[in-house]
# Entry
Amino acid sequence: MRIVLFTVVIALLAGAARADLANDISACRAETDTLKRLVCYDAITVKTAPVDPAPKQTAGQSPVTASKIELRYQPKDTDNWVFNSRVEAYPSFVNNSDKTVVAIGLKLTIKDAFGENVVNARGTLDMIIPPGETVESPSYYSWDDNPFSGDDPFDDLVGPVKTGVAKASIVVTDVVYDDGTIESYQ
# Structure
């Protein structure tokens, strides 16, 4: 019982109102009557930190949107450590909210000239986007050519990207702000 009580006291002392809490505990310890001491401990109120909010479902469009998605074909270049050809996607985002964004969740779709989905992927990006600004992602997506397979995403992407007919789109599904707020747009 003492170990549990000690653990509870230590946990309680970690809160914001340490001085008041310590005074209340000291007063309870000074109580000689066992029943009154127990009632005293039960009467102590502890202020707790707010629990992190669950993602807030928000109707409508995200205030963070993809402003540009540049698709590039990168040929094999062993001098620059590119050992297989690849297709790369470089997204940029604009923040139309009044808060700083620190991470986003997204759905990326790339279609060929016939409108067929070649890539349908979900992902997350950790990036800082100040309010009202447009920022290119520090990360990019890539699909490497697997020379031992004729049925990988690269094989379906390389033609449309090289000819310039591939169409990429990104839907922002989640936004995390620097104040800890998380909003979901599904």
Remarks:
- DSSP finds four helices and nine strands in the chain.
- Strands lie at 56-57, 64-74, 86-95, 101-111, 117-129, 134-136, 141-144, 167-177, 182-184.
